[in-house]
Write a sequence for this structure.
């Protein structure tokens, strides 16, 4: 198992805009696998973006299938160059982040999205996601643009320190 170190705020690399993935090969697939393993090693990880491990490419991994929040989902997704094609509705929800450990806050996100992305072979795909899965995808795409959830909290009072058991 290969687990990478997750960068934490205020590391400046988390604020950079990521570059598009242009080369689709075995190394890219291996990096997606490493991202997945890193995500799963973290507490409650359901998504991770390449910039969180210092890789400045537009790559995210999302898997809500084992979440404590049951939701309709697409299972494990490896997404290169994701782009939001449409968004509908609005839903307020609590978010946390592996790069902002120990903090959670209320963030408003679209309730439904259509997103296109390149799979590990470079083939363009499109899915529709709703609820929690949509929230996770939007959260991870924000990372690709140098945005953290703490930038989107509805009010500073909604940002609270997470209590650990």
């Amino acid at each position: 198992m290969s687990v990478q170190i997750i960068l934490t705020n205020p590391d400046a690399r988390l604020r950079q805009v990521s570059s598009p993935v242009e080369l689709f090969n075995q190394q890219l697939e291996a990096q997606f696998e490493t991202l997945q393993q890193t995500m799963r090693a973290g507490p409650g990880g359901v998504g991770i973006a390449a910039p969180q491990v210092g890789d400045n490419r537009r790559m995210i991994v999302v898997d809500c299938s084992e979440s404590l929040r049951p939701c309709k989902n697409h299972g494990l997704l490896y997404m290169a160059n994701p782009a939001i094609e449409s968004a509908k509705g609005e839903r307020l929800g609590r978010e946390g982040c592996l790069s902002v450990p120990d903090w959670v806050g209320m963030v408003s996100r679209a309730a439904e999205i259509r997103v296109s992305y390149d799979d590990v072979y470079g083939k363009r795909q499109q899915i529709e996601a709703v609820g929690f899965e949509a929230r996770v995808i939007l959260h991870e795409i924000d990372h690709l643009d140098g945005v953290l959830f703490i930038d989107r909290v509805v009010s500073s009072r909604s940002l609270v320190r997470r209590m650990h058991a």
In short: The mean pLDDT is 92.
